[in-house]
Structure formats: structure tokens, C-alpha cells
Amino acid sequence: MEEKPFKAMAKSLSPHDSSKSGSKGDIRNLWTRATLSQPRLNIQLTDVYEDLDPEDSSEDWKAGQWYKQPSSDGGAWEGWSERTAEAGTRQEELDAYTSEELERSPQRGDVEGLEDFGSKMDFDASVSSVNIMKHTHHRAYWREQQNRMPLPLLELMENEVLEILTKALRTYQSEIGRDHFLTKQLQRYIEGLRKRRNRRLHVSAH
Amino acid sequence: MKLKTGSFLWCLYLDKLYCLLSVRNVRALVEYFRLLDAHRSHTLNDVLFYHFLHHVTNWTRKQIMNVFNMLDWEAVGEIGFDQFYMLVCIVLAHENHLEEQFIFRHSRPVFELLDLDGEMRLGAESFQKYDFLFNIKKHDLREFYRDFDITGDCHLNYKEFKLFTISTMDKYQEKQKEENENEEKSLLSESTA
């Protein structure tokens, strides 16, 4: 296409997109603080976009694969680079805090000053580790929320796909036979999809 | 062509300026394609493709298979997501009467789709075969051949095709302008009455 679909995605995925930044600004702050103490700040794209739906344990399809397109990386991850920039800002704030503390205590003995400073750092570290634990629990939740489709739309899609595939199965059975591996594969897939749908309906009913 | 009311595609919409799907719509379409991909091959074969289009449109078998052959530009017998996305944009453009805008905005890909034999030229038969898709009227095409077939070979190369899309876009915009003016006049006359 003259304007490829993923380029359109790149255009739309602006960090200044008001519909996203307004509701997710707090969450992004939580995410940045949550990753500060972790040794690996550079998380893979596919890690963030992996499907966390516990019902889909048999799937190896990752929606994130579509986001591996080179033209989409820059656009899709403008927001991510913004978050890592905020992580850097937070680190700078901590550094500024430590330098302020060192300036404030010039009259104390070096050891005392260091001890006080050390205890304050320990306190900060413990507070931040508690926060990190809280945020780590929530992180999976928010990741899942970002990946999820709205339930009514998902139901509509699943019902429609089931109808289409059921008709396709009849064609497979008449054209290539019931014993063909493709027919069996399609049959298993349809049964899996039906079970998932029924489970979801059962959960939403209760 | 009519999209089935209440179907998933019926819920999607094109950006009217660029004639492309929004990010949200693409995200939903990716999910939909993933559900249809029963064999986990990241593609749809001809049977799945046929049943999908048969379910959501009122196209005949012949039309559906023509579309499949057009999109299967690598001749592998399967359609990937790129081609699927293209198809959905074309279908939505047709459904929302944005064909002229779509062809104008995406003249290169449309030209390459219609150029089935790879000769970089389009004959009248290409347009006739896919007139149900792009709503290219015979009358407009005849006029165009008369006015813009610079090479005189009754085939359109890309530049001539581009001129054709510009000319149909101009006509479409003039028609829109006229319709708006008529609407305003009728509103004014109603209000004065």
C-alpha cells in the first residue's frame, strides 16, 4: 500500500494520543518505578504483547508477532521509550536526593552521616521494594487489560468464526474426507473454540 | 455488494481521508484473523477464505474465487494477513461508497492487484473482471480511454491509471459538492417556507 497498514499504526500510535495518555499516564508511572530495581530494563516487545489469557494454554500464536514489523517498531514503541525516559528521570531524582543529603550534613562525623544516609537509603529501598512488589502484581493485570479485546466484540468474533469454520468443516469432509489430517485438525480447533466460548459464557453467567 | 448486518466487518470503519483502518480496528482484525487461522499457518487457504467471504458478503462463488486469485499474488494458494487487511479495506471502501477515494489514495497497490499478468498495463478485461470490487463504470472507462490513453494501445500503464484515479476523484468531489449545495438549498427553502 502507498500508506502501509503498519505505517498508519505508527502515525496513530503517537505518544501524544490523548485517548491513551490520559487514562494510562498513572499506569506508566507505576510501570517505570516497578522496573527500576530490576537488572534488565530492556524488555522484549513480544514479552509485553504476549497473550496472558490463561484459557489459551495450547496456543503458540502471539499477537505481538504482528508488532515485529520494522516499520511498526518505531511507532508502537514511542510510548515505551517515553516510559524508559521516565525511569531515567526517576533515577536522576534519587541521585539528586542523595547529593542533597550529603550537602545537608557537612557538620556531622563522616561515619554518623554515612550511617544516617545509609539508614535513609535502606528505608527508601524498602519502601520502593514494597511499592515494586505491589506494582509487579498489578503489572500483569494492566498488561492483560491492554491486550484484551472488549468481551462483546470477542463474543461476536468467536460466534461468527465458529459459524464460518463449521461450514468449512463440511466442505473439508466432503472434498478431502473425514480422515484427512486437515479435517481432523479443523475439527479439533472448532471443538476447542466451542469449549472456550462455553466456558466464557458459563463464567459470565455466574 | 452488501456486508452482512451485524457481522464483525460491519462493525469496522475506514478513516475517510486515508481509507485505512484505525489502530484499534487493526488490532481487532488481527484477533479475528487469528481466530480464523484454524491451521495455525498464519494464512487462510481457499476453503476458509471462501466460507469467510460467503458468510459476510453476498458475492457469488465466482466473484469470491476471482478475489482470492487477485489477492494470492504469490500464487501459494493461501492468503496472509497483509492481503486480508487489503481485502477488508477494499470491502469497507465499497460498503461505504468510498471506492473513488480508495483508488485515488492507493492507486499503486490497486494497479498491482488488477495487473494479474504482471505486464504493468491494464486492459479493459481487468476492469470488467473486478468492476464489482472497485465500482469502475464502463462509461467512465470509455471516456477515459478516449481522453487519456496517451500511448493509444487501449491499455493503461500506471501513469495513465493514476490520471484516471485523479479524474474520477475530481468528478466524485464535484458530485459531492453539488449534493451538498442541493441539500443546503432544500434546507433553506424548507426554513423559509
UniProtKB/TrEMBL annotation, chain A:
Chain intervals with Basic and acidic residues compositional bias: 17-26
Record-linked InterPro entries: CATSPERZ
Chain segments carrying region Disordered: 1-26, 52-79
A single Gene Ontology CC term: sperm principal piece
Protein name as annotated: Catsper channel auxiliary subunit zeta
Membrane-crossing segments per the record: none
Domain of life of the source: Eukaryota
A biological process term (GO) from this entry: flagellated sperm motility
From TrEMBL, chain B:
Compositional bias (Basic and acidic residues): 174-187
GO biological process: flagellated sperm motility; sperm capacitation
UniProt xrefs under PROSITE patterns: EF_HAND_2
Any GO MF annotation of the entry: calcium ion binding
InterPro entries recorded: EF-hand-dom_pair, EF_hand_dom, EFCAB9
Region (Disordered): 174-193
Residue span, EF-hand domain: 136-171
GO cellular component: cytoplasm; sperm principal piece
PANTHER family named among the record's database cross-references: EF-HAND CALCIUM-BINDING DOMAIN-CONTAINING PROTEIN 9 (PTHR47065:SF1)
Protein's recorded name: EF-hand calcium binding domain 9
